[in-house]
Specification:
486 residues, TIM Barrel, two-stranded antiparallel ribbon, binds 6-O-phosphono-beta-D-galactopyranose
């Protein structure tokens, strides 16, 4: 008789915590030798053009670069974690965090990207942050590049469009792995690597003035350079610190066909392949065949060097990290998608509700995604972002009653538990933005995700005081019970 025990709870060493990114959190954009990053100019550059996310022209970029002030520009202030990190990590510890995902600002370490020596003052900041985590037994989970690079790399090399950027990245990662050997056990190379086919934030390359085929050519070529850089970092990490684990990070949007009509099902399948291409390369270690046809039909020719494939297969990641906020719908008919319009991609699902920003909330989709990933990849999975952006208000009693956030997170955690019962291997859960921070897509403060409220408005005004929301106590209880008391 075949009978195996069904796991019925989260593993004992499950990594509960929260996730952040340097450019949305730290502030101190010009302190202790730090250079400007692409993330810190993108919104200003876009505003000049009245473009949507990721559309940056050389002219608008120049204006943003020349403007060295941080007046009325919240993104460059973050929430001033640079000066508040002790207080903030203490609050995470109070909730019982086992893990804290953060990113390192590359421009703190190499201000222009191509110096010969790293900036010691920048490294010292992260030394202190990691020491603070250690005090409370919190495991740092480090993203090496979260939607940013030193702006100097864009100005000199056009970001990831240039193969030269690989060597700059390799130098940066070598500094990190050596310095934090035995200190950081979990790394991730690029945040939401699939964003590199969406534009500037991912690639650091200016392409908005190119025509569509040329734009996609440049984005996929840039992405190829990131694949190589990531694979080299994986190998380097394993050599320098054999105890460390290094993963990739994908923005995952579960895709459903709009109808059971096979043409819609096929369209959704292709959409899914285009989404999973990134993890196919980074987890399986090779370019999948379906991309050959896609590249040929879209006039994309990648320049590869003779040993690129070998580098990619030698740099397979140890685990798959991903963000999950929503699902989407694919139709064979573009007009159907456009008419219903969900977020930037795909159509709306009539069975689901949406956040105030139109992101369709789909906890069961997380279970589906976890099962698909496990079936396809057989490597440990890590939900490194998930959460609800909302317009929180401080109530007359001085508190923030965010039951909607508790409900969102509870439903997703329930589905993770179901997926564990399905047999998937899940390492942890770091919800997005445990402390309110600047939004990546709007560059504003008012889209809040946190358990901790930060008194700052969209213009960057406020006391920066930290307040515990209702969800703070709830998450504390969740962690203390290892996900049993939801
Ligand atoms: C992910 C990014 C994060 C983050 C989150 C929420 O795509 O990795 O940086 O900000 O989305 O998005 P937003 O801030 O736009 O609400």
């Amino acid at each position: 008789m075949y009978s195996k025990k069904v796991p019925d709870k989260f593993p004992d060493n499950f990594l509960w915590g929260g996730a952040t990114a340097a450019n949305q959190l730290e502030g101190g954009w010009n302190l202790d030798g730090k250079g400007l990053t692409t993330a810190e100019v993108v919104k200003k550059a876009e505003d000049r053009q009245n473009f949507t996310m990721n559309e940056v022209t050389p002219e608008s970029l120049q204006v943003a670069v020349n403007d060295k002030t941080d007046e009325l520009y919240p993104k460059r202030r973050g929430i001033d974690f640079y000066h508040h990190y002790k207080e903030d990590i203490k609050l995470f510890a109070e909730m019982g965090f086992k893990a804290f995902r953060l990113s390192i600002a590359w421009a703190r370490i190499f201000p222009n990207g191509d110096e010969t020596e790293p900036n010691e003052a920048g490294l010292r900041f992260y030394d202190s942050v990691f020491a603070e985590c250690k005090r409370y037994g919190i495991e740092p989970i480090v993203t090496i590049s979260h939607y940013e690079m030193p702006l100097g790399i864009t100005l000199k090399y056009n970001g990831w469009a240039s193969r030269k950027t690989i060597a700059l990245f390799t130098k940066y990662t070598e500094v990190l792995f050596k310095r934090y050997q035995g200190v950081v056990k979990y790394w991730m190379t690029f945040n939401e690597i699939n964003a590199s086919t969406w534009g500037f934030t991912g690639t650091g390359a200016l392409d908005s003035e190119l025509d569509e085929p040329a734009k996609m050519q440049l984005r996929y070529q840039s992405l190829h350079h990131e694949f190589i850089a990531s694979a080299l970092a994986v190998k380097q990490c394993h050599q320098i610190d054999p105890q460390a684990k290094i993963g990739c990070m994908l923005a995952r949007m579960q895709t459903y066909p709009n109808t059971p009509n096979p043409i819609d099902v096929r369209a959704a399948q292709l959409q899914d392949q285009l989404n999973l291409f990134f993890t196919d390369v980074q987890v399986r270690g090779e370019y999948p065949e379906y991309m050959n046809r896609y590249f040929a039909e879209n006039g994309i020719t990648l320049e590869m060097q003779a040993d690129d494939q070998q580098i990619i297969s030698a740099g397979k990641v140890d685990y798959l990290g991903f963000s999950y906020y929503m699902s989407t719908v694919t139709s064979a008919n573009d007009e159907v998608e456009k008419a219903t319009g969900n977020f930037a991609f795909g159509g709306k699902n009539p069975y689901l509700e949406a956040s105030d920003w139109g992101w369709q909330i789909d906890p069961l989709g997380l279970r589906i995604t976890l099962n698909e990933f496990w079936d396809r990849y057989r490597v440990p999975l890590f939900v490194v972002e998930n959460g609800l952006g909302a317009l929180d208000k401080v109530a007359p009693d001085g508190k923030i009653h965010d039951n909607y956030r508790i409900e969102y997170l509870r439903k997703h955690i329930e589905q993770m538990k179901e997926a564990i019962r399905d047999g998937i291997n899940l390492m942890g859960y770091t919800m997005w933005g445990p402390i309110d921070l600047i939004s990546a897509s709007t560059s504003e403060m008012s889209k809040r995700y946190g358990f901790i409220y930060v008194d700052q408005d969209d213009e960057g005004q406020g006391t920066l005081k930290r307040l515990r929301k209702d969800s703070f106590d709830w998450y504390k209880k969740v962690i203390a019970s290892n996900g049993e008391d939801l």
